[in-house]
Write a structure and sequence with these properties.
Length: 192
């Protein structure tokens, strides 16, 4: 059986500078994905042209749009790059340029040229769940996201707040605090 060996992390995208290369449908989809999950993401996009809907979304989220063809100089100062052009050779060149500069890169719909994948995300207040299919099936990730959005209650954020407030009142060392929180939360998974 294949294993998903990816390591999930949650990035503070307002502290990072992300470059999206491309201005078509895929670029818009990636920008929408980024800004939905991280509305304050620091993003720059470069492309010879941008769709009107992309321009509107970019304006709403203070995304810098640069009307130009890709050039490796646009990589400087960037932490992550998402390549979405419709020219495979350009996307692969972006990948190679990023590798030389140790910049994380995702070439849309081309898993061998990805350091990371943009999976499905479920957000309910402070609770965020990331879903990965190891780059194999975005549709499965989408369906799982829809499922979790339906089954996770909207008021889960209140539970998070209550447990955080309670955690602050517990005395003892780290192990004792973990034991007490496990005792309290065990009731959440016990069958009634």
């Amino acid at each position: 059986m294949e294993r998903n060996n990816l390591y999930p992390i949650f990035l503070k995208t307002s502290n990072l500078h992300i470059l999206v290369v491309g201005g078509g449908n895929v670029a818009e989809e990636k920008l929408n994905f980024l800004t939905k999950s991280s509305p304050n993401a620091k993003v720059t996009m470069v492309a010879p042209m941008f769709r009107e809907a992309t321009k509107e979304l970019a304006a709403k989220h203070h995304v810098d749009l640069i009307v130009d063809a890709y050039n490796a100089n646009y990589l400087y100062g960037k932490h992550m790059v998402i390549a979405t052009t419709d020219v495979p050779e350009v996307n692969i060149q972006i990948y190679r340029d990023c590798r030389k500069l140790n910049i994380l890169v995702n070439v849309a719909d081309n898993p061998p040229y990805c350091d990371f994948y943009m999976g499905g995300i479920v957000t309910k207040g402070n609770v965020k769940i990331a879903i990965s299919t190891n780059g194999q099936s975005p549709t499965t990730a989408k369906r799982l996201r829809q499922y979790f959005e339906d089954v996770i209650p909207e008021n889960i954020n209140q539970m998070v707040k209550n447990l955080n407030d309670y955690r602050k009142t517990i005395k003892g060392d780290f192990g004792q605090k973990v034991d007490k929180m496990n005792e309290i939360t065990q009731k959440l998974v016990e069958k009634v």
